[in-house]
Amino acid sequence: LLGQILDHWFESEPLKATLATDAVIGAMASPHTPGSGYVLLHHVMGELEGRRGAWGYVAGGMGALSQAIAQAATARGAHIFSEKAVCHVLLGRDGEAQGVVLQDGTEVRSKLVLSNASPQITFLELVPQEQLPKDFVQRIRQVDTRSPVTKINVAVDRLPSFLAAPNARDGQPLPHHQCSIHLNCEGTQLLHQAFTEATQGHPSSRPMIELCIPSALDPGLAPPGCHVVSLFTQYTPSVLAGGQSWDEQARNAYADTVFDCIEDYAPGFKASVIGRDILTPPDLERIFGLPGGNIFHGGMSLDQLYFTRPAPSYSGYCSPIPGLYLCGSGAHPGGGVMGAAGRNAAQVAIKDFRHL
After folding, report:
1. Phi and psi dihedrals of 151, rounded to 5?
2. 255-313 pLDDT, tens per residue?
3. Is residue 35 part of a domain?
């Protein structure tokens, strides 16, 4: 249990709760949920510029990272087709992967196929079910993809000024504006209460909020004096109580709750808002292909990690389809912007390619 780990090392409740957010981030879990301690470990793995467990912003926004990878690939002769949806994996006479078919009917032939899509899309939508073992299909269908995350992107005309650390007169970003700001995290019990409400089908009345202002570090993201604020919030159930859908009214009601909370910490925040973009779990699934809206392509619980990710006997990036590999967050070691699953899958694919 994460709570036991934090209680052993720390006394301050606000500090324990703030650290606990990294144990439940993206997970429909409470700090009191068994196994939550692993998710905290996962989020402090690795290092950044020699600093262990550190995180960083990508200059130009997260898309700049994808562009950097794309440029490295094209420099080595890769051809990239963006905005081209894959309809299904092309199979040979013996059931091996031979390429992909795009929605416009174009066939792209290849000796190997690596899928960065979720296991659910890869194996339940892009591959004929009769080509897969029944127990494998059942396992993929049973993966826990519940997600508590609603992401809200906000444009503001001035920097938020927090009661705990008011802005300087010149309105320039202060050190705390350049960090991750955790709100509604005064105690782990608050997080547990927010989780409990969501398990009953209700968006948290006092949601956990991670507030980042990337434009405080990267001014090119917003016009002078203005900023973009990224709100990573939970808990919001994918399916609301009573079968209610996440319609415009429900989405705005939850966003208003989040903004009211921020207003308590930083009066004037709501008046500074120019626009907002609300992405609930169903939105994250529809737009980005995240199953259930889960940012990790599936829960990072102990029963869905290591040799069971995405399924027992298939944690080594290979799949029941010869020549088809899984290289995204649904593969070992799971989600997060680290590239480990892709690198590992590429090494396996290269080794197999030499024998073709």
Report:
1. -100, 135
2. 999 999 999 999 999 999 999 999 999 999 999 999 999 999 999 998 999 999 999 99
3. no
Shared domain for 189 and 282, answered yes or no, is: yes
Q: Cα angle at 333 between 46 and 284, to 5 degrees?
A: 100
Range of the domain at 198: 147-288
In a shared domain, residues 128 and 173: no
How does pLDDT run across 170-200, given as a tens digit for each residue?
A: 889 999 999 999 999 999 999 999 999 999 9
The number of domains in the chain is 2
Here the contacts of 18-21 (C-beta below 8 Å, separation 24 or greater) are: 18/182, 18/185, 20/185, 20/188, 20/191, 21/182, 21/185, 21/191, 21/208, 21/210
Q: Is residue 251 helix, strand or coil?
A: helix
Q: pLDDT digits over 201-241, tens only?
A: 999 999 999 999 999 999 999 999 999 999 999 999 999 99
